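Hi support team,

I've been running sequence recovery on a batch of backbones for a student project. Most finish fine, but this one hangs at about 90% for roughly twenty minutes before it completes. I'm not sure whether the input is malformed or the queue is just slow. I've pasted the structure tokens below so you can try to reproduce it. Let me know if you need the job ID as well.

Thanks,
M.K.
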């Protein structure tokens, strides 16, 4: 059932109830007005009652000949007397028995405690009410039905208008949803009003925006990955085609170059997968309590041959002997390794790299954190590039993209790994002076196993 039909149905039922209620009230009003006529001027009623009771007692407790009797107080009344058994004994005035029984005011007659009869009376005021009631019920079939129809038509028109106004935003929302379904990222929704429709529109608009954003990211990732795959594939294809066309075997040098490209491709695919899983929150971590100082020692040892090659001075300082963190060792080591190899790569021979570790408090956090700083005296990063370096495939120095061997995913993976561990990463840099990458990891309350 459509909203409009539901509205019309419920409004019609409501109007019908109101009309029936008004009818009942009018009906009750007639009886109230009859009783009020008695309550506001009781005296004539009481005199008439007394006259009848006196007649009864003065005739030896009998109603005999009452039909031909005259009662002084009866002048302004129409009345009918019924015996205790309900037999008509006396009637006066122009009204019929049924009319008096229905609309007359009843006075109970007594002789001592004994009921001797009932007198139904109607004075002028009550007669007017009675006349009006008769007229009202006489008119009701005509005027009543006419007004009922009029009210219903008016109600329907109002409802049609209201429901039309009400369904405009709904129709717009449906249109918007249709547009989203068809992939129209710029789908429009009704103006934000402060009602429920406004709230639905806002929620849909936000949902659409995030869907569009996700779609943009997906497309960007596809094109980035395709772009990254293209060069190594072209090199491999070129070498193999050449060998095939000339029929000459691949030299050891060419084989090494092809292997290099294949390894690069394989690394790229692994890193893209890893990053996508991290970003989607699909990576299940297996953290253990580790001593960060020991981890940094391992890292320094692992990087030693790189720095020696480039004659860079690498030093490590930890303010405490043990800094407990709950991490998946291999992943955190990989993230820090990405940062450290970058520092080595972007630092000229003779430069310096410092690894610093200590515990600290973050202004917006209650719990203590481990802080790791990786400081280099390298090339630095320009202010324009700084906000984007954690984006995947972003390389500040494009000309060095390939020779560096980097996939452009190192920082993105490091950041996602650190976030997945409940930490954060920050960077400060100055072109020509060097860069400082700071990593924060939540401290673990437990002591690491020192074997
Ligand atoms: P890449 O594989 O190119 O190293 P990353 O994600 O690790 O990719 O780094 C992104 C970019 O950030 C790099 O291309 C480089 O321009 C910049 N960058 C990262 N670390 C440093 C650093 N220590 N000094 C200067 N530039 C850096």
């Amino acid at each position: 059932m459509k909203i409009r039909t539901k509205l019309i149905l419920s409004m019609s039922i409501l109007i019908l109830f109101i009309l029936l209620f008004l009818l009942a009230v009018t009906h009750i009003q007639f009886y109230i007005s009859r009783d009020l006529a008695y309550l506001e001027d009781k005296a004539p009623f009481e005199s008439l009652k007394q006259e009848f009771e006196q007649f009864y007692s003065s005739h030896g407790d009998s109603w005999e000949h009452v039909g031909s009797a005259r009662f002084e107080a009866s002048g302004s009344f129409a009345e009918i007397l019924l015996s205790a058994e309900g037999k008509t004994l006396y009637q006066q005035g122009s009204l019929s028995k049924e009319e008096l029984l229905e609309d007359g005011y009843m006075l109970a007659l007594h002789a001592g405690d004994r009921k001797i009869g009932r007198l139904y009376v109607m004075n002028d005021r009550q007669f007017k009410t009675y006349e009006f009631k008769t007229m009202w019920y006489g008119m009701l079939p005509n005027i009543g039905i006419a007004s009922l129809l009029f009210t219903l038509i008016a109600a329907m028109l109002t409802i049609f208008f209201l429901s039309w106004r009400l369904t405009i935003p709904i129709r717009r929302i449906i249109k918007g949803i249709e547009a989203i379904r068809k992939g129209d990222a710029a789908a429009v929704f009704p103006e934000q009003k402060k009602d429920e429709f406004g709230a639905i529109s806002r929620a849909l608009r936000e949902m659409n925006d995030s869907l569009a954003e996700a779609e943009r990211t997906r497309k960007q990732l596809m094109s980035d990955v395709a772009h990254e795959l293209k060069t190594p594939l072209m090199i491999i294809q070129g070498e193999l085609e050449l060998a095939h066309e000339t029929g000459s075997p691949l030299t050891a040098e060419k084989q090494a170059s092809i292997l290099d490209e294949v390894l690069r491709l394989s690394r790229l695919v692994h890193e893209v997968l890893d990053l996508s899983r991290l970003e989607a929150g699909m990576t299940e971590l297996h953290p253990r309590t580790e001593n960060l100082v020991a981890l940094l020692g391992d890292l320094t040892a692992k990087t030693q041959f790189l720095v020696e090659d480039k004659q860079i001075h690498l030093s490590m300082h930890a303010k405490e002997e043990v800094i407990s963190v709950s991490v998946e060792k291999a992943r955190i080591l990989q993230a820090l390794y990405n940062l450290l190899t970058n520092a080595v790569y972007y630092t000229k021979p003779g430069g310096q790299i410092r690894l610093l570790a200590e515990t600290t408090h973050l202004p917006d956090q209650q719990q203590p954190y481990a802080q790791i700083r990786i400081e280099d005296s390298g090339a630095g990063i320009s202010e324009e590039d700084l906000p984007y370096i954690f984006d995947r495939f972003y390389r500040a120095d494009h000309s060095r993209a390939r020779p560096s061997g980097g996939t452009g995913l190192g920082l993105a993976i490091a950041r996602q790994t650190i976030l997945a561990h409940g930490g954060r990463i920050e960077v400060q840099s100055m072109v020509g002076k060097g860069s400082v990458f700071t990593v924060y990891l939540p401290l673990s309350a437990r002591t690491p196993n020192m074997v």
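--
Follow-up from support: It reproduced on our side and the slowdown came from queue contention, not your input. The longest helix spans residues 124-181. No action needed from you.
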